[in-house]
Queue: 3 jobs
Job 1
Amino acid sequence: MKTITTDSPRIYVGTYAKYSNGSINGAWLDLDDYSDRDSFLEACARLHADETDPEFMFQDYEGFPASFYCESSVSNELYDWINLDTDDKELLAAYLSCMDQNGTIEQARDAFMGRADSEKEFAENFADETCLFDGIPDAIRYHFDYESYASELFQSFTMDSSSGYVFTNC
């Protein structure tokens, strides 16, 4: 899966006619420069005004999750993603990567459990946050096997290894 490589989402726009004639003539268009899908498509039409009825070919992309890319169209969902703040973009990209390629920001928010550098670290934080050791003497707590606990927790959780986001599988 292609990951985010730039802060600015952009697409290389050519046409099928040019491609069929051996040309990849086109340009990179920054999606942030357009308020919505329609204004982006108008810019594509201006770019390829040398054709009567250009059929756009989106030949490459960067700066957004692969699930929003299609060679032959630009979805409204892509512009929904573009309008998210940076934190939500990162959250959704992680969710799409490890949970559901067709997921939504609402699903990602609902499934989000936290972030950690490792499953063991998440288990330690989860134990503290859920008051697992309330009423248990420290002498016992310090002998707790967090690696084993993490193994049990991650029967119900999934961690995106590249970002450290943790989601519930339920």
Job 2
Amino acid sequence: MKTIWLTRHGETEWNTIRKMQGQLNSALTDNGIQQAKNLSKWIENERIDIIYTSPLKRAYDTATILKGHREIPIVAHEDLMEINLGQWQGQCISDVKAQEPEKHQAFWFTPDKYQTTSGEDFYDVRKRVQRFCQEVLDTENNKNILIVAHAIVLKSFIAYTKNLPVSKLWTGERLKPTSISKSTYMERKFSYAYIGKTEHYDQESGQGGWFIDQ
């Protein structure tokens, strides 16, 4: 049996102005850095053997903060990158809604019907998540793993490991910046102790941020 921790990166500058990031980058805010520091302290007594992170800077920077002074290897894995939003990347969510209201509606409410001509859909992300699970989780024997990634990747991971269809991706708990989820993995089955906890937030670092990587 191994423990799998899942966390989203800290709040970014584009999160605060509701701009869609996808596979583009924006820096962690001071608030996002503090969120990561608080989570690092919150999990400091947990045994973590290896950290897998998205190579996107906001996630890798969060992983580095979470590692702290512990001798834990950090491995960047491309399958943990956020969804490629194509031409939506770098746009404000309000502009996307105005320009392509039907696609915007599908993205948020019927993810199984969302289609794009310039990026990835939710099935593409699901395939990446499945590949990551088969490649990493079945080979890192008896290691407790911390995964640092993005909202859609983590929601896809949870849906896949709970055998939920893509249509149910947005159901369940919100995944705020640096929210933490804990599961156990044994005999290729997942069991979740909790999803999306933010007990490490203090009054200031709990403010701001958005559900999705805009």
Job 3
Amino acid sequence: MNKLCLFLIFFSFSLVFSESPAPYSKIRSELLLDPSILRTTEIDTEHFIRWNEGRIQWMSDPVHLYTYSSEGVDDTEWGCAWRAIQTALASYEENVPGFVYLYENFGGREFLEKTAEELYVIDEEWIAPHESWHMWADPFVGQMILHDYGLVTELVALNGIVASNSPSVHQGTIDYTSFKERVEKHFQENGCPIVIDNGTYAMNILGAGSDDDSFFLLIGDPHLILLRDEHPLNGLYIVELDVSGSQISIDYPAVHHHFDPGSYTAFQQFGLSNWMILFSKGK
């Protein structure tokens, strides 16, 4: 093999390694939006009461919903769990950590491993969010963050563990009947927004209600487009489920402002699917 061939092989390998994605620990500059693009997160109470018609009987108070492309950061397609964590924190923290602060201080391996040791025995290799290009989070990451803020948490699996890059740890598996009982009790005792994740979409349960054989969930969904209008109920919908957890109906007043319709179709067989569910309450 001549020197030219060796050089070309070496040069090719150099290109591959130089173009490999670097680990992220900071929000990339191209994801920062015009600082004037700020989105309100507070739910319009008057419009909500008129729309609800008594279906949701118990809910978090106050309710602030954090969504894609808020606070001057474009996290479309990857930041839904971080937003769900913000929404959960907003019920307890007067100064809710901004998206950049939350991401840059609570996503790395060092923080997660240290905090996880206080709640679990982690005996497997796993990838922390900032060590992979997709910059993910999930309810496990949320549990570590809420725990660090001094909140009492419990991470459970509905029906079974969800496939994800997170450690396969939880504090119990529940069925749909137990889920309904847990959710009602949680909100009756002034619990904060629940973080849920099916391995693809992370969202919040903000409240619940029941009527005969139906169970209602108030969903706060962060998957909104940047160029949405100022609809007072952006990101909210009410899902009605039957006794098995299958969807009877969904009432989504601002559906045309949604980013990915796959998130709200995830509730069609909610009670029969696998979800990770993070409950948290006061200190």
